[in-house]
Amino acid sequence: MTDKVLDDISHRRYNPLNGSWLLVSPHRTKRPWQGQQEAPALNKLPEYDPQCYLCPGNKRAQGDSNPHYKNTFAFVNDYSAVKEEQQEYHPQKDAPGDGDDDIASLLLQAQPATGRCYVLTFSAKHDTTLADMSASEIVPVIETWTRIYASHLSPSHPLQAAAARALSEIPPNPDGEVEPAKKQQLRYMQIFENKGAAMGCSNPHPHCQIWTTSTLPEEPGKELAQMTKYHREHKGRHLLEDYVKVEMQKAERVVWQNDAFLVVCPWWAVWPFEVLVIAKRHVRALVELTGEERLQFAEAVQEVTRRYDNLFETNFPYSSGIHQAPLGCTEEEAEMSWFHMHFYPPLLRSATVRKFLVGYELMAEPQRDITPEQATARLRDCGGELYRKLLQ
């Protein structure tokens, strides 16, 4: 059990997954002010919005029309953050010993980044969210993630055989598949969702984004490095495998679990109700999930999002993302990868009171008040029927 003194004193916690520390200040929750209280919020959006550029049959910003899809629909983002084709850039390399120019080449570094960005709708219904959907309704989303990931793997990828098996099991999308980037082999695929205006989402229609890039991004890169280091230093053990064992044994931060996935408020959580969904066995990427595991992953996602909405009886904002094996990687990088999904929600005390990473967090290190153990207890109590269904 966690030392009870940590419930009352300020302390730092280590995040072995990215090698960082954060400050925890649980005594601050004893302040008299407890935040606003709001009435339960109903979803007042229409099922179909003729002005929405993601609804079936509607025109998008660039003029293309969406098909009359029934479940998921993926397309290349009309305003991609990275593109396949752009003007070439070759960093200038100065000869050693050229004085100021040599120093500048050390400090002012840049590298080109190319790729392709996709948008993927979760449902044809404009007024729904993952919290409103059943696990079986979320499965097509996971299947589409899997197909897109598999189609972007390098030809020599260690998971090619697993990808072939997954593609043989998963039915094709009747509304068409997206074509993978052809110009070059891309390095990484980041699947993520920004839900709610508080997280910068510009369209409430349920959707996520998939960015494929020629480089390995910072966060998954840190995690891969830390997992590799742990594996080398601890006789071939996997960091997240050991972490799953610890959390299941202690049971203090376990929000929910099934046979395939563990849902925890991690020991090192920065956001008040941050959640980590971890595969219990060594799954390196989406393509290694069995059909039953895809359903159990959908159950885990549904449990997290429904409990979030029930917590403050509102459409709970968050950013979530999947970390898995890179698209192009070595045998070791694939072996070190462990499939997991992060949920970073900003709400702190109510539907309108949120946490900001400012001041000390920007200048020193992340800080939180409510402990992960306290957050876990509250999320455990938020199971059951989605609150909106009880109000209708």
Automatic annotation (TrEMBL):
Domain Galactose-1-phosphate uridyl transferase C-terminal, chain residue ranges per copy: 224-381
Protein's pathway: Carbohydrate metabolism; galactose metabolism
Organism lineage: Eukaryota, Fungi, Dikarya, Ascomycota, Pezizomycotina
Official protein name in the record: Galactose-1-phosphate uridylyltransferase
Matching InterPro entries: GalP_UDPtransf1, GalP_UDPtransf1_His-AS, GalP_Utransf_C, GalP_Utransf_N, HIT-like_sf
CDD domains, A to Z: GalT (cd00608)
Quaternary assembly: Homodimer.
Enzyme class: transferase
Species the sequence originates in: Neurospora tetraspora
